[in-house]
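Journal club side-thread
Mid-discussion, someone asked how the predicted structure for our own chain would compare to the paper's figures. Pasting it here so we can look after the session.
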Amino acid sequence: MSLLESFKVALSSIWNHKVRSILTMLGIIIGVAAVIIIVAIGQGAKTKMTEELFSLEKNAVDIWYQPMPKEGEEESEMFWVEPELSSEDVDTLSQVPGVKAVIATNQGWGPMTYNDKQGEMEITGVGPEFFTARDIQIVEGRPINARDNDGRNRVVMIDTVAREKFFKDKEDVIGEIVDLNGNPYKLVGVYESPIPEQYRYNESGEMLMPRGVISMMFGNREIERLAIIADDPERISEIGRSAADTLTRAKKLEDGMYTVNDFSQYEQEVDTVLTIMTLVIGSIAGISLLVGGIGVMNIMLVSVTERTREIGLRKALGATRGRILLQFLIESMTLTSLGGLLGIGLAALGTIIVSIYSPISASVSPLVVIIGVGFSAFIGIIFGILPANKASKLSPIDALRYE
């Protein structure tokens, strides 16, 4: 009997005992589905945590200057001046491979007055790249652009919190003149506050201004904080170091260097925790595969008993022990493989439900599907050996006389 005929016989046997076969496959179906769903949820949770921990502002890697002591000089005795940063340095960093965006800012604080209303404002000095990097949503007007920054234009933007406080009853605020630290500024835009309400500590809201104007107004550096956002959160440390090295070379520094915080250990810890959790829970779910395999072995033993006369007849017609062994192994493997395929279908449905009703985006990867089917077939071979071996050892005479 050829392999193709053996598979046909196996499928025929499964079809002739549909209810029994489905009940036998149930353990395999549940086991495979559970393992695949758990792995998919684990991968989805890892992706979600990575995005949450290292996305936008959270995955902004600060680049800072670190002076290097000269030979024989103690660090406490060092006198150093941090190099000035400019818009050209921002452009240099934006060209580094892997850098999605650059954030260059400075800070200020001052009272804003409009008619009879006044409030202390936290002011952030920004350039045009800030809006792409932070995904700022413009509600009214326009963002601050390169012309505003290069020309030191006295323009400002306010967030929706300040809009509500100072201009609650005014329909159009674009073009209004506000007083800040005794100086007039033109309001050119309103943006959605990125800070959740429960975390807002300033009831007056926040304000954006060209960082060149902040520098001129408060006498501080044009760029006080420099950070980059990586296009791949999982390579955040690598891309950050590359950006810092590029800036060090561009500034031709000899007595210091730019550096970044190393997130690699933290990333590895997060990955290790999630991997351990997935393995532990997946191992528990894998117990059902073991139970399913025992069920397959049991039903195959029953099948051998039921087909004793058939086995004797085949042996009498010249079937070898190896052929009988192969036939029952194929039947066992076919049974578990079908269970594995049904389990994969159930897992796909489960991951869709998880993705719809939870913040985790779970998906079944092709590799997991291949492993699921392969493992199911492997279970069939392992737990089918004993019944197949029993069938192959039957004596033709005893088998034909079996009632």
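Post-session note: Residues 46 and 273 are 10 Å apart (CA to CA).
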